[in-house]
């Protein structure tokens, strides 16, 4: 009996030895791939030039007057005292008869006009006789620099009053006809000004308007 138990125990002992499970260590080698994404943000600073003043279309000529820019263009067409104040608006709603800052501007206006019509023409410009000089001859009080005032709202000074000899003469001022020599004109070939009245008509007008950021 004891023998049998021993045999059995021995048997189990051996089986037990045999059955001790072998621990299998499975080493999983995990490789970690680190992807580094480098985002390079390139900030390109484009220096945008400030917008430049220009004229609305190329048939206007830009004149730099320092603190502002002015555009001029000739209106061609029959003009007299009846339409003198409206012909420029047919070119652009903002356009008015143009004055002159100095002799160089009237020369510029003349060359523009001559490039379009190469013979002498008379054009209304933006200067009207001041009322206190109505019916006054050319004299010390109503002189070439004092008898007229610029009408375009921007031109100032008296350097632009470049008159022909003996002008403004207020022709017929005392003739009793009542012709008021209110309006100033320019001759395109001589680049000189002359005052005319409502008995006369000319070939157009020198128009002006402010330049803008078009
Ligand atoms: C005449 O006016 C123009 C602008 O139209 C200006 O550039 C120029 O310097 C002026 N000339 C003189 C002598 O003042
Ligand atoms: Ca005259």
UniProtKB/TrEMBL annotation:
Record's keyword terms, sorted: Signal
Cleavable signal peptide: 1-18
InterPro entries associated with the record: CTDL_fold (IPR016187)
SUPFAM superfamilies for the chain: C-type lectin-like
UniProt name for this protein: C-type lectin domain-containing protein
Organism whose genome encodes this protein: Caenorhabditis angaria
Source taxonomy: Eukaryota, Metazoa, Ecdysozoa, Nematoda, Chromadorea
């Amino acid at each position: 009996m004891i023998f049998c138990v021993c045999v059995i125990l021995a048997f189990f002992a051996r089986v037990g030895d045999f059955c001790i499970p072998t621990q299998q260590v499975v080493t999983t080698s995990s490789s970690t791939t680190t992807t580094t994404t480098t985002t390079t943000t390139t900030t390109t600073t484009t220096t945008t030039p400030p917008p430049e003043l220009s004229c609305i279309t190329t048939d206007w000529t830009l004149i730099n007057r320092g603190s502002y820019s002015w555009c001029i263009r000739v209106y061609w067409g029959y003009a007299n005292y009846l339409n003198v104040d409206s012909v420029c608006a047919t070119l652009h709603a903002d356009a008015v008869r143009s004055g002159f800052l100095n002799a160089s501007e009237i020369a510029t206006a003349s060359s523009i006009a001559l490039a379009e019509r190469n013979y002498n023409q008379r054009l209304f410009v933006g200067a009207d006789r001041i009322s206190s000089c109505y019916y006054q001859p050319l004299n010390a009080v109503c002189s070439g620099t004092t008898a007229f005032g610029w009408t375009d709202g921007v031109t100032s000074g008296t350097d632009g009053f470049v008159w022909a000899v003996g002008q403004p003469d207020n022709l017929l001022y005392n003739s009793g006809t009542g012709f008021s020599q209110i309006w100033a004109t320019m001759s395109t070939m001589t680049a000189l000004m002359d005052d005319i009245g409502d008995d006369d008509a000319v070939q157009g007008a020198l128009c002006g308007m402010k330049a803008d950021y078009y």
